[in-house]
Amino acid sequence: MTVPLHQIEQILRTNPDSLVVVDEAYVDFGGKSALPLIGKYENLLVVRTFSKSRCLAGGRLGYAFACPEVIADLEKIKYSTNPYNINRLTLLLGEATVEAEDYYKARCRNIMETREWTAAQLKTLGFRVLPSKANFLFARTDKMDGLELYKKLRKL
Known about the structure:
The chain is α+β, with helices and mostly antiparallel strands.
């Protein structure tokens, strides 16, 4: 589910004493980033990962954006939750994906186009498809049993 920026701002405004964490793991697949709000709200932490659009799920590599005070607080406690730094292989893979930004942008565009095509095809088969800004879809049908569903999907 994608939360519109105006709703994130409302949460930030009405909870000034709470840290609001926005997970942007799937933002590269068509979501709107909350990054422009960081300079406006000191209680915002935006987290991202290399797992989804950069194909590094096994690398366990992520990063965060926030005001300097929040980042300083995170630096103070980082070893209490995970005593290990990034290993050398993960670091090299992360650097390589950053250097290949054009490749990953094109890949994400292709995934978004495929997602929209797949959603349209599923709808023609009678599926209810939820809107998605990720690299997957949620779809449901009550009109056919499992075998019939399998046969129709094989034709796609």
